[in-house]
Specification:
heterodimer, A: about 240 residues, alpha/beta, Rossmann fold, 2 domains, 8 helices, about 35% helix, B: 2 domains, 10 helices
Chain lengths: ~240, ~250
């Protein structure tokens, strides 16, 4: 999937993203950088949850504008830091509700689709439980199943393991790896450098709202900028 | 584990009975010390027909006021959250004014001024409208705080999948807030029920007015107020139970 940013600026009360420019075409792109660098903001812009003050964003064939945002959002799936499943519904119902109410499926079709995804993410034993009755990792896998239910072309993941302990992190990352077989495109924000190395094709390193370095995943083993090198020293312990 | 549950439940029951005993003791003390020889409940019940009419009317007025108050409060909430400043202002002004309005004044003005202006003189309906208008703002606030308790991210998810406004409320918001709404709703309900007593100023034959009538005929004031008290309890206690049941039903 081609990802094009030109002159993207995002301000809150201060500048968060400062004239981002990039044009890449890869199936799996990782956005990394220190906390507060603007990487989650960039992902929200890519999901069309927020819009930049200036600049243009193009994802695949879509120019992301307020006018076509609804149509664009129907083609993506989004996974958040926290699972964000609806807490009053079972994992299965979280999926079928969306399919029935917003995609016009009948109950049977929706349940069949939900059960396929539940099997894909190994949640058969948990599907009839509500999110707070399962582990954090299971809930996050449930939210990945939900993000996949509309059969999106692109899956955006915003630090999907940020709220999980190392064991659950591993469990969720393994589940995401298995999704490669689905042939979808991925853009994800994460701190898990080992995961980026094994899953991403392309890496964008952001610091202080600017793209400091980007390139094939090899830049993680041989960074060209001091910024990325310093970041990698800070996040890897081995 | 199981065999420990029995004694614990027994202990709980015993404590409940002890709590009841405290109140019964208090009532017995008051009754013995304060009741005079001419205390006679039978006097009141000679006017059974009037009392029944009063209770039925109080029930009907309360039920309609609660129902309409719930709907009206929700409309106020939606209007206040509206992006159209006109609706927002309409709701805000209404809420601010109503919050500082005594129900007694509202009932009086509704009947003698507003009702008169519209040439409408059914004081039962005016009473229901007045109570509805009175509890609406409180119910609007109740919706605001309950819906405010829902994680913002859930709204992002709803946006992302394109849920319609109706679908949001019907499938996602309402089922989550029903449990949270029950305690404040019960508060508002009991205000409305007890507030309906103020309709006596427009001579609506609800239970308070009925009791006043009976008292003026029998001079049995103490007895009258006791019966009134019990009549209100007979309405509010089952409602409390009902809201508790609903609360439990919607537990997460």
């Amino acid at each position: 999937m081609r990802l094009q940013l030109s002159g993207v600026v995002k301000d809150y009360d201060h500048r968060v993203l400062d004239h981002l420019n990039i044009d890449v075409d890869h199936k799996s792109v990782a956005i990394i950088g220190p906390s507060g660098c603007g990487k989650s903001t960039l992902l929200r812009l890519l999901a069309g949850i927020e819009f930049p003050q200036r600049g243009e964003i193009r994802v695949g064939q879509w120019d992301i504008t307020r006018e076509n945002i609804k149509a664009y959002q129907r083609t993506i799936g989004l996974v958040f830091q926290k699972h964000n499943l609806f807490p009053h519904l079972t994992i299965r119902r979280n999926i079928t509700l969306i399919l029935e109410k917003t995609r016009g499926m009948d109950k049977k079709q929706a349940e069949k689709r939900a059960d396929e995804l539940i099997a894909l993410l190994h949640l058969e034993g948990e599907k009839d439980k509500k999110p707070d009755k399962v582990s954090g990792g299971q809930a996050q896998r449930g939210s990945i199943a939900r993000a996949l239910c509309t059969d999106p072309e692109l899956l955006l993941l915003d630090e999907p393991t940020a709220s999980l302990d190392p064991i659950l992190t591993h469990e969720v990352l393994m589940a995401i790896k298995d999704l490669r077989a689905l042939g979808k495109d991925f853009i994800f924000v994460t701190h898990e450098i080992a995961f980026v190395k094994s899953f991403a094709e392309y890496v964008i390193f952001i610091d202080n709202g600017v793209i400091v370095e980007h390139g094939d995943v090899d830049i993680l083993t041989s960074p060209k900028t001091e910024g990325l090198a310093a970041f990698l020293r800070n996040v890897t312990y081995d | 584990m199981n065999d420990r549950k029995g004694p614990r439940r027994l202990l709980k029951t015993a404590q409940f009975i002890a709590a009841i005993a405290v109140y019964v003791g208090f009532i017995a003390f008051v009754v013995i010390r304060a009741s005079s020889s001419n205390f006679n409940l039978a006097l009141i019940f000679e006017y059974g027909g009037l009392l029944r009419e009063g209770i039925v009317n109080t029930l009907i007025i309360s039920a309609y006021s609660l129902l309409f108050g719930l709907v009206f409060g929700f409309i106020l909430y939606v209007a206040r959250e509206s992006r159209i400043y006109f609706f927002k202002s309409l709701a805000n002004i209404f809420i601010e004014v109503m919050m500082g309005t005594p129900l007694l004044v509202l009932v009086f003005i509704s009947s003698f001024f507003i009702g008169k202006a519209f040439e409408f003189d059914d004081d039962y309906i005016i009473g229901v409208v007045a109570i509805t208008a009175y509890i609406g703002p409180y119910i609007a606030n109740m919706f605001k705080s309950a819906i405010g308790a829902i994680d913002r991210q859930q709204f992002v998810v709803m946006d992302l999948y394109g849920f319609t406004r109706y679908q949001r409320y019907r499938y996602i918001i309402m089922p989550q807030i029903i449990r949270l709404l029950m305690p404040p709703l019960m508060n508002n309900f009991s205000y409305a029920i007890k507030g309906s007593a103020l309709l006596y100023v427009t001579a609506v034959t609800e239970i308070f007015y009925a009791i006043k009538l009976v008292q003026s005929k029998t001079f049995a004031f103490t007895e009258g107020y006791l019966v009134l008290w019990i009549a209100y309890l007979m309405i509010t206690l089952p409602l409390t139970l009902l809201t508790k049941l609903i609360e439990r039903r919607y537990e997460l």
